[in-house]
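Quarterly update from the structural biology core.
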Amino acid sequence: MPHRILVIGGGAAGIGAAGGVKAADPRNEVTVYTEFEDVGYSPCGIPYVHGKEIDSFERLFLAQKEAYVQAGIDVHYETWVSSIDLHRKVVDVVGEGEVPWDRLVVATGFEYSDPGVPGGRLDGLYYVKNIRRAMEWDKVLDTVRSAVVVHATPLGLEMTTALAHRGIDTHLVDPQPWALADVVDPDIIAPVQDSWQEMGVHLHFNTTLTSFNGTQRLQSVGTTAGEIPADLAVLSTHKQPNVTLAARAGLRTGPTGGLVVNERMATSAPGVYAAGDCAELPHGVTRVGVTGLTGSHAYAQGKVAGFNAGGGTKRYQPVYVPWGTPAGKWVIGGASFGETLATALGLPFVVGRAEGISRARYYPGVRPVRVKLLAEPEQLRLIGAQMVGQEGIKERADFLATAVKFGLTLRDLAAMENVYSPAIGALNEPIVLAAQNGLDSLAGGG
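Predicted structure, tokenized:
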């Protein structure tokens, strides 16, 4: 029997959910509500257009609007859902009134945390999210002489690099002692920070934002270390689950603030599912809830949520979080935990480290690769990894997340086979070297 399914949100999770609904049963009726002018584009690509690595915003669109019409997905653009009534199974849509549903998918994404300082309404403050606003800001960047990036989150790393590529005098302000300090270890981020300084970026760590200054337009950014003249401030504060609508309706939230879902992406209310940045998922090692993952996570969650809302049966597994991003002249990445986060969580671990290379030592373009592996002290099962290099980081992060998931040990990794081809792989794989070094350290008692 076909269902009438409503999806609130048109990002990766929402569009994934709409496709999942149709995959479960093409007869299902699915409507997507989005506050924005577009759906189905990659906001993760915006910094790379700003940095001129990608030549146009149009490349970020996954499909034209007509494609959704042809797929039987009814998208309502620039449309706001003002309330959800779980008991009557209706949503109230501004300008449309009450709309009934059989099943509902909440994919409302995230909001940037409020920096909570004076001057937050001045012109010149840029939140990177909506592609149409990004197109407008890209023109403004041609006139910007000095910019401040507020907080060294993943987006902050990308935008710092992008603005430096644009030739803008760039300052990075963060209260932590190093970039991405909640996740990345200092030895991994150190080459990135060195390269930023080579690019002319001014780094202000252990520095707290105090104000945005100006009359109508931003003129400077106040910090505990002094005032920084600026034409632009990029607000890359931490992502918070956007659950205001859902929580007001009575859906249960977890410790992270995200909506609690089970393995079917079902929420606390019958017939209601959630996916993407607004949902809380368990980490595979600790089972602690996490939110704010990547676009690939959001899309996959949406597919599961939509498929189940449409009458099918799929499960989304706990996450092991492979991640990576270019930053400065380097690429950093990893899986699960590094030393900093594992220590904060109270997880015991042993470490294996290696300084390897990406290709044969004699092949042009060979680059260094630093790998660090974390394992349980007893069984030596892998629980996390971090890396910095200039090629091959993404592929290693994907593999190591799978290694964590399936319980591979340092012994397994020390004995793993690897591709040796001078142009693409060194004789000694850096992961193998790190695992061997970890075992040798344990055997040597230090």
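The chain has a mean pLDDT of 97.
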